[in-house]
């Protein structure tokens, strides 16, 4: 089994908890009351997402050629 690494983004919600996404896997989103729970939930969501892609014969996206930068702007 090939090991894949995905970047995840956590967003603290006003009502509490965290929404977490895997940007490379469009539509792969989860939630958790704590950071640890959110990370565990997105891990499961990613595994299910990849399983569904495999079952339908689709290509599994990777981040091999992804470059990440952060920009600071004045607003």
Automatic annotation (TrEMBL):
* Domain of life where this protein originates: Bacteria
Please give the Pfam families that the UniProt record associates with this protein. HicB_lk_antitox
Per the database record, which ranges form the HicB-like antitoxin of toxin-antitoxin system domain? 6-68
Task: Give the SUPFAM superfamilies listed for this entry.
Answer: TTHA1013/TTHA0281-like
Q: Which Gene3D superfamilies match?
A: 3.30.160.250
Q: Known InterPro entries for this protein?
A: HicB-like, TA_system_antitoxin, TTHA1013/TTHA0281-like
User: Can you name this protein?
Assistant: Type II toxin-antitoxin system HicB family antitoxin
């Amino acid at each position: 089994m090939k090991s894949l690494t995905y970047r995840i983004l956590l967003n603290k919600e006003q009502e509490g908890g965290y929404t977490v996404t895997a940007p490379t896997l469009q539509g792969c989103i989860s939630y958790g009351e704590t950071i640890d729970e959110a990370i565990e939930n997105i891990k499961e969501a990613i595994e299910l997402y990849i399983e569904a892609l495999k079952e339908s014969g689709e290509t599994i996206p990777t981040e091999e050629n992804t470059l990440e930068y952060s920009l600071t702007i004045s607003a």
